[in-house]
Design a protein that fits this description.
Distance between the termini: 89 Å
Structural class: mainly alpha
Order of helices and strands: HHHHHHHHHHHHHHHHHHEHHEEH
Helix content: 55-70%
Number of helices: 21
Shape: elongated
Low-confidence stretches: 1-12
Largest sheet: 3 strands, antiparallel
């Protein structure tokens, strides 16, 4: 790596003033004017203003040609990198990284920058994330990538709030879990990525991401909360595509609609992963059906017979008790089973992100509860004398 770094220095380095002079001379008028402002800020040592200008110029299409960004960093930015905000420096290094053709050159560059920012937790974490990205996508080093993710996770857990580094961290984690087929981990990491990202995803990228997310939600072990995904606009990217049926299937699962699940089988059965896990999918939609039955009932009306559950889930009555036991064991619901009467008394259902229809159910429950409280208040007020005499 040291030898490689020396070769890069020799190939791309020139002194900062000469670099600026050459850039002004070889650029079109508008761009030459930008370089003139950068030269002025550099000479005045106005590092913050200079950083803002550089962050704009590294994104210009003309700078994406050949090794221009590499030359920019080694011949200019490297001259004053210690003066810059560490995180801003690494964010510019991210743009430069894309111009390296060889993965080992990219890693050498990142390690060089990493030495400069190792005292800053966020900047250091971002360097590790970018190294992890190369290790995962270029070398398929999953174990090494997992180790880096665990290191960065500890660092970010000590940072208050959400930093610009979090989106890159969750994206790397979701990439690893997708490659390893860890559906539930991919689902949770991806939702976190979408919740804090400032990335602009193209329509094609959004559609691809929505497809993977939908499959992960359906196949992920322990994933019974679809509300957050259904509320995210990324699902809109599936409209008009060959996978638009996925949104309809997710809504069916979210509401525990077993009939709709069966109705959509001709579509979802064409997807190999879903077709291969039909038993798992049917069990999940039945569990969600049981949760929805519990949720929609008033607290005083949650004594549900096995016959009612069998009708809603389309399961044989002799399999209902096993379904209830699975729901209880996974903390999806709480209650007591009466085997003699063939009933279950539900006392609690796992909280979920609600859609509009479920919010309406909740509002009706609150309204009913409010009326009950008012009725009890009137009863106590009218019967207060009788109660006090006792």
């Amino acid at each position: 790596l040291i030898l490689l770094d020396s070769l890069l220095q020799e190939k791309f380095n020139m002194d900062a003033p000469r670099f600026i002079t050459e850039m002004k001379a070889s650029s079109v008028p508008d761009l030459a004017e930008r370089w003139g402002r950068i030269e002025e800020l550099y000479n005045k040592k106005l590092w913050h203003q200079l950083t803002l200008q550089l962050q704009q110029i590294v994104k210009l299409p003309v700078m994406q040609e050949g090794d221009k960004l590499i030359v920019l960093y080694n011949s200019f930015i490297a001259d004053f990198e210690s003066k810059l905000n560490p995180l801003s420096l690494v964010q510019m290094a991210m743009a430069v990284l894309e111009r390296f053709e060889k993965a080992e050159e990219g890693i050498a560059f990142l390690e060089k920058v990493g030495d400069k920012v190792k005292e800053n937790d966020e900047a250091s974490a971002l360097i590790k994330i970018m190294i992890g990205k190369i290790k995962l996508h270029k070398y398929d080093q999953r174990r090494e990538t997992q180790d880096l993710i665990e290191e960065v996770d500890k660092t970010l857990s000590e940072i208050d709030g959400v930093s610009p580094v979090h989106s890159h961290f969750y994206l790397l984690a979701s990439d690893l879990y997708r490659i390893e087929g860890k559906h539930s981990d991919f689902y949770r990491s991806s939702l976190r990525f979408l919740g804090c990202t400032d990335y602009f995803l193209s329509k094609e990228e959004q559609s691809k991401y929505a497809f993977f997310l939908s499959l992960a939600a359906l196949l992920g072990e322990g994933v019974y909360n679809f509300g957050e995904l259904l509320a995210h606009k990324i699902l809109e990217s599936l409209q008009g595509t060959e996978n638009d049926w996925l949104t309809e299937l997710l809504f069916a699962f979210n509401s525990g609609d077993v009939a709709k699940f069966r109705q959509l089988k001709p579509k979802w059965a064409t997807q190999p992963d879903l077709a291969a896990n039909e038993t798992l999918l049917f069990e999940k939609v039945c569990l969600l059906c049981l949760m929805e039955m519990t949720f929609r009932r008033e607290a005083t009306q949650r004594l549900i017979s096995f016959q009612q559950i069998a009708k809603e889930t389309t399961l044989p009555v002799d399999q209902v008790e096993l379904l209830i036991m699975k729901a209880l064991s996974q903390d999806l619901v709480k209650g007591k089973i009466d085997q003699v009467d063939g009933t279950v008394h539900m006392t609690w259902v796992q909280p979920r992100v609600l859609n509009k229809d479920q919010v309406k159910v909740m509002m009706n429950k609150i309204s009913t509860w409010s009326e009950s409280v008012a009725s009890m208040e009137n009863l106590i007020e009218n019967k207060a004398g009788e109660i006090l005499t006792y």
